[in-house]
Amino acid sequence: MNILNKQQNLESLFDFQKNDQAYKEYKQYLNYYYEKPTKQDKYDRSYENGKLLLINKKNPQKKIEIIPARFGDLEIIYEQLKMQKKIILEKISIIIEKPENYNQEDRDLFDELKEKYGLFNQKIIEIDAINKNYYMSMEQLLQNKIKTMNETAIYYMQRTQSYQTLTELDPILKSEKAMLIKLFHQSKNQTPTNTDKIAKQLNIPSKTIEAWFIWIQNCFLYLKNKKELYSINDHIDHMEAEFETKNKYMLLKKPQIKEIN
């Protein structure tokens, strides 16, 4: 709990991206520290008082301190914060209800408890915002999933019905079917406007050509929505896994590279 402070914001730490330039620099020096030393190395490695140090060989006064990130379980921290708030309120109540006069020690303790209460309450609000943002985003995805599932089911039925219509008409050649599909794609996945001309070219009744284009379009829309549904499911799975990992290993303090001269 002592790592929490007002200057850091848990929301921004939660969304911290590992492609951040500062993180790349940290990773570069960390990898260097744990690499097998060579004669050409510019730095010596050292571990002092729990700190990773790279010491300039030519000037030992110049050092680079590698300060690792600090992590914690966000759910545990949240419960601890709520518990600490209750404890602080109880302590404040004891001070306020003290039968004798306040002394300086009471005032100092009150101010200390008040400051801690404000800090812990701020962190609870920040964690609530993290959870709210996640569940709002997830709710939007789920609504989109339901909408896409309904549309996919509709296009499936329409595809089935339009195919049933085709079975009642004279069949066409596979090459003619392939040509109609190609024309559909060339028309930006829409039924071409010159279906009568196509019918004359292929010597196929216009009614048959139109029925085939209806079936092709229904197949296209069904597959398009099915692909979108898979994409949404993948996005939901990714968000859930990422949120769980970030909660379990919540970044509480960014890694740091500190130059010492």
Structure description:
By secondary structure, the chain is of the alpha+beta class. It has a domain at 142-242. It is 65% helix and 11% strand. The protein contains seven helices and six strands; from the N terminus they run H-H-E-E-E-E-H-H-H-H-H-E-E. It has helices at 10-14, 21-34, 74-96, 104-167, 174-186, 195-202, 206-248, and strands at residues 43-48, 51-56, 63-67, 70-72, 250-253, 256-260. Strands 1-2-3-6 form a four-stranded antiparallel sheet. A hairpin with a 6-residue loop joins strand 2 and strand 3. Helix 3 runs antiparallel to helix 4 (104-167). It starts with 9 loop residues before the first helix and ends with a strand.
Q: How are strands sequenced across the largest beta sheet?
A: 1-2-3-6
String of helices and strands: HHEEEEHHHHHEE
Secondary-structure class? alpha+beta
In percent, how helical is the residue content? 55-70%
Distance between the termini: 32 Å
| SS elements, strand count | 6
Poorly predicted segments: none
Average predicted confidence as pLDDT:
91
Instruction: Classify the beta-strand content into a percent band.
Output: 5-15%
| Cα gyration radius (Å) | 33 Å
Number of helices: 7
Shape annotation: elongated
